[in-house]
């Protein structure tokens, strides 16, 4: 056997292990549907409407085809690492909540005349900063004009330490500072579908199937979700995958090899970290230009866009941000450990629950406007995928209660990458799972009944895809109001993705 043949055999073996995976053909379930009618969604962008950067010559590159294996989520080689009975210890709240925020109104149950309860707003500025509002005593029901509210109660007579509070807490809501538009006045906008991106960090396709069975069934049966079992991460951790997903760009060089023509990073000299992302082709900006009200929240003070010490957004990246909540819990300049303890551990509440409640509020607050959101659950499963088992009920209830509200929506439920830590990760199956984050997509009701688009998406769902394809799909959905004479959409960077709404005429390049 020649050296060339040996080398090629080795490369084929490596690719078979490292390239993805999986699993489970889309189930054919009897969907529970609603008798609603919504406006028609515009057809997908034609490929000639998009002008990507010029692509390299792929002649001489090996492997223009690969077989995608289907993994068993309960593979016998990994069952010893699975803990379906993994649940937090029983929890009883250890704090008496003296302030309450309900339907936008803040009240206190404190009746002690020798003490005073007060609140102030925490306004978002950017990824690192917040702005404090003025303190105001809660002498009657108050209506804070902000999303994040800090509350404290003081003993009026204990002035020796400068009114040290005996109670500290924080509330979150979605405050709307405009007037709701009646449907007849907003007929054109209301036809636009909502777009919700819900990320659970470090969860593979197999892990989602085995740890969140009720949520999985709810999405497949009642939302007619389409699963993409062959989503492949583009890089090691959250940040590069986020850049691919939300900016369509790569922040790393890819060496030329027998399986790649080689690529240069879209960001020279680490400019993705040294420079702000606000004026880049950030997908949130495109949805905003298309008339969407936007929101972003995650449960990490840093976050995927500015970790470990990158600029991120120096302005607000979306209309609503929950970031002050996280900054107050663990931000470098603003952290208050007591508040962090009170809103979570002492209240028997996990950080992912705060995120999903905020998303729930946002959905309710803007029934008359198209919405685009990114909710990134970082803490839940990042270090231990077994933590997902106990969260299944919470995610199931969120989707069950919002079936009607999300009926005219694109809902992307996905991971940024698979499991990266623990014993399972060090198995052969775990190595593949790391490369294979999960993705389920639900279409708006009108598109589910469109045979052309529905069949196109289902066909694309069986292909190898990456986060670049997600960016292309978001671009396809977001139709900006153009003030220019050109109808062409110019996108820079690798942008080698293909919209999942697009038929096979769209191009896709994968050697990176």
TrEMBL record:
The keyword Transmembrane applies. Pfam families: DUF229. It comes from the Eukaryota. InterPro entries: Alkaline_phosphatase_core_sf, DUF229. GO terms for cellular component: extracellular space. The keyword Transmembrane applies. Keywords: Membrane, Transmembrane, Transmembrane helix. Signal peptide: none annotated. The chain crosses the membrane at residues 6-24. This is Sulfatase domain-containing protein. It comes from Panagrellus redivivus (Microworm).
């Amino acid at each position: 056997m020649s050296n060339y043949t040996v080398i090629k055999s080795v490369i084929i073996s490596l690719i078979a292990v490292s390239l993805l995976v999986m699993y489970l053909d889309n189930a054919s379930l009897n969907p529970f549907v609603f008798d609603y009618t919504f406006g028609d969604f515009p057809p997908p962008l034609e490929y000639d409407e998009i002008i990507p950067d010029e692509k390299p010559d792929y002649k001489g590159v090996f492997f223009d085809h690969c077989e995608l294996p289907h993994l068993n989520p309960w593979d016998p080689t990994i069952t010893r690492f699975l803990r379906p009975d993994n649940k937090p210890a029983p929890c009883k709240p250890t704090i008496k909540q003296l302030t309450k925020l309900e339907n936008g109104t803040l009240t206190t149950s404190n009746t002690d005349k020798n003490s005073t309860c007060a609140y102030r707003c925490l306004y978002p500025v950017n990824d690192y900063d917040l702005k404090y509002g003025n303190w105001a005593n809660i002498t009657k029901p108050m209506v804070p004009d902000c999303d994040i509210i800090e509350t404290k109660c003081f003993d009026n007579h204990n002035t020796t330490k400068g009114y040290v509070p005996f109670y500290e807490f924080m509330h979150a809501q979605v405050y709307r500072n405009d007037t709701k538009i009646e449907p007849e006045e907003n007929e054109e906008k209301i036809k636009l579908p909502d777009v919700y991106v819900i990320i659970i960090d470090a969860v593979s396709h197999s892990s989602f199937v085995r740890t969140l069975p009720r949520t999985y069934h709810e999405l497949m049966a009642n939302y007619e979700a389409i699963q993409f079992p062959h989503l492949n991460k583009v890089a090691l951790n959250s940040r590069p995958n986020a850049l691919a997903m939300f900016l369509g760009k790569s922040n790393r060089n890819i060496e030329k090899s027998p399986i790649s023509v080689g690529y240069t990073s879209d960001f020279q000299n680490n400019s993705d970290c040294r420079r702000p992302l606000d004026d880049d082709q950030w997908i949130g900006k495109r949805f905003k230009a298309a008339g969407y009200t936007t929101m972003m929240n995650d449960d990490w003070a840093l976050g995927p866009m500015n970790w470990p010490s990158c600029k991120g957004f120096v302005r607000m990246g979306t209309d609503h941000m929950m970031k002050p909540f996280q900054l107050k819990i663990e931000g470098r300049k603003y952290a208050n450990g007591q508040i962090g303890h009170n809103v979570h551990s002492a209240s028997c509440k996990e950080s992912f629950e705060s995120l999903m409640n905020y998303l729930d509020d946002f959905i309710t607050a803007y029934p008359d406007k198209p919405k685009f959101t990114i909710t990134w659950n970082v803490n839940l499963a990042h270090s231990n995928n077994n933590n997902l088992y106990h969260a299944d009920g919470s995610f199931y209830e969120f989707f069950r209660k919002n079936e009607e509200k999300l009926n005219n929506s694109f809902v992307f439920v996905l991971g940024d990458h698979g499991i990266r830590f623990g014993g399972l990760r060090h198995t052969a199956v775990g190595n593949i799972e790391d490369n294979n984050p999960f993705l389920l997509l639900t279409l708006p009701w009108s598109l589910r009944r469109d045979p052309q688009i529905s069949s196109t998406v289902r066909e694309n769902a069986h292909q190898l895809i990456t986060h670049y394809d997600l960016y292309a799909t978001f671009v396809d959905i977001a139709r900006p109001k153009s003030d220019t004479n050109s109808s062409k959409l110019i996108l820079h960077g690798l942008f080698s993705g293909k919209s999942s709404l697009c038929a096979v005429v769209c191009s896709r390049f994968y050697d990176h």
